[in-house]
Amino acid sequence: MLRAGIVGLPNVGKSTLFNALTAQEAALAANYPFATIEPNVGVVTVPDERLPVLAKIVKTETIVPATVEFVDIAGLVRGASKGEGLGNQFLANIRETDAVIQVVRCFEDENIVHVEGSVDPIRDMETIQIELALADLASIEKRRDKAARSAKSGDKDARRELEIIEKIQPVLEEGLPVRAARLDAEENAVVKKWFLLTIKPTIFAANVDEITLANPQDNPNVQKVLEHAGRENADVVPICAKLEAELVALSPEERREYLNDLGLKSSGVDNLIRAAYHMLGLMSFLTAGEKEVRAWTIPAGTKAPQAAGVIHSDIERGFIRAEIVSYEDLLACGSLAAARDKGLVRLEGKDYIMQEGDVVNFRFNV
Asked: Model-level pTM?
């Protein structure tokens, strides 16, 4: 399961957003699972409008969506990289996540005091960025010393590590994230094994007020976040945490009507969950039967046998063929039998690369 850490300075809307993420899921229909694992961890579903449609087609009431785990990480203060405040806990919690969602305050409200005394998204982002870069720099320096000793003995892998460190250390010394370095695929694969903080994919959640939510590009603070994120190779999702918290009390139909009145197609929470899910190159294939309709999470580019293994290792081991129909074709036909009659159900072998929205039945023998 994707694990995304929510970080930010005090009074930027971090906890409000986390509460909206978790509470909104609790307000959904009972067949959408929600669980609070501990006080600061919540498992929320990935919005997928295809699942209820498939459930009607195959006549089942059981729907199991894909999920994302969100962690509300302790607030950061200056000096966190040196253990100030809850710095060590903060950094350790981020290290355990797959992705980072940094909430950035982009709204003015005299009733909510900013820890720095004013609203300045660039300053806030740089505060967290520098602390994470300093922590990574300390890790890199230790790794460099060890690699240098091994390289003297002729260790080729150690020499390769030193070459990569030469590329990323200057970036970190400038207070920039490792993901801003120009690394090729091979170098990225090596660096990912080092569990650095600033290599993690990042989404900036630009927390705006309700007035500017429909047109966030008109908000000068959002523009600053977009420009900053562009330099860091990060994504931006505008969101109004206060509004999201208010939407929790509404039914799904009322939420849709409210969002339509604001000129929005979906809520910021839904957009954030989708962005977090796809940021790591994940996708869903679907299974549909009388027992249940379910979305299964796999990395993009996964072949059919390995996708089958996500369901059960025995299915991968005994894989024969994958019986596949696209969601769009199944929807157009109205039933699997009709899709089969029209020749739209395919049999794919071991080399088939799974596609987003494939509705699959795996044939296997063990």
From this structure: 0.79
